[in-house]
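Please review this one:
***
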Amino acid sequence: MAINDELLEKVYHENCPGCKVDRNKRIQTGLPIKELVSIWVVVLCVVLPISSLYPFIYFMVRDFNIAEKEEDISYYAGFVGSAYMIGRALSSVLWGVVADRYGRKPIIILGTSTVVIFNTIFGFSFNYWMAIVTRFLPGFLNGILGTIKAYACELFPEEYQALGLSATSTSWGIGLVIGPALGGFLAQPAEKFPSLVSPDSLFGRFPYLLPCLCISIFAFVVTIVAIWLPETLHIHKLNELESASDAPVAKEKANEEKDSTLLSLIKNWPLMSSIIVYCVFSLYDTAYTEIFSLWAESPKSLGGLNYTSDDVGVVLSVTGVCLLLFHTAFFPIAVRIFGPVMVARISGVLSIPLLTAYPYIALLSGLMLTFTLNLASILKNVLSISIITGTVMLQNKAVDQHQRGAANGIAMTLQATFNAIGPSCGGA
């Protein structure tokens, strides 16, 4: 009876997609599995091309013959890795405005489409500058990561909003592991599988095309599926809300409320502090992801492990499985017991000695090296995703639901700027 009363009190506009989603949320019961999967695969589609190049970027830049010395390869590789994030930093605000004006769904479809096109072209890169450009453009034209968090809040009922936001960060973390694993296993197939791939074949002449093409195929499937995603933006015509004579007053009032909202977000210290922590750890996570692969594949004489891209793929695959198990089984329990703030604090403190120990891992060899490296990689990723998920939860608790879109826009702008520095730090 209470639900029926709420339905009667709530005003729904017939041609508004946001109202349709709200109506469905009010009558929906049970765990929204379909919505969770949708959010998960869309975020995964974005993060895979970001992270998949890390295991082979060292070899790719080496093949371009742009570095005069072997120790300069990592320097040039850093700029290829950061090109995507630089593009995101320049366009995050623009895509946030477009999403608020025209809807979340067009931005999602456009973003997955850019992955299909430019990630494939990146696999055909035959020189350094082509690689830079084909990494920059998908970052500049892709506004999904900012939009998807607002979309998750609008798509899920209030009791499942935390779960929806957790799905975005979990998918991001898993993508940072699956992507390098794919890149490590599938790059240079003519060298790894000479009986299946000849040096004169397409994948032999473009040794880094195969992982890019596999991700592009996945992105193409996600793009087709995204056509059926519901739009959550409320589109109410002004004349449905106000009379024509009151339109100027309504516009002025809306502008005042907008300014007030932006100012209140900037003055909201719980929000801004959680965004700053989130961005700092995103920088650290992005830098680590690239540094790990470059360090592992560098020769022993330069302090590396002399691993192949295949070896790096094995380590990251093990990490991905353990991360998925932890985040689905143990992380929700940890948050219930300690709360998101304490979980983020504990994870941050534990990350310091763990990262400090990495140079000493290079001194090991054999089975001890394999065991220690896998354990360190698992712990690092578990701690990192715990921090990021905890801070995302804090961001959305710090604001009302109607302010979450703007708050996520601020977070994505700062995160893109911080993450643009990360790969460059890794290369340098």
User: Anything to note?
Assistant: Residues 241-245, 256-260, 423-428 have pLDDT under 50 and may be disordered. The radius of gyration is 23 Å. The chain has 20 helices and no strands.
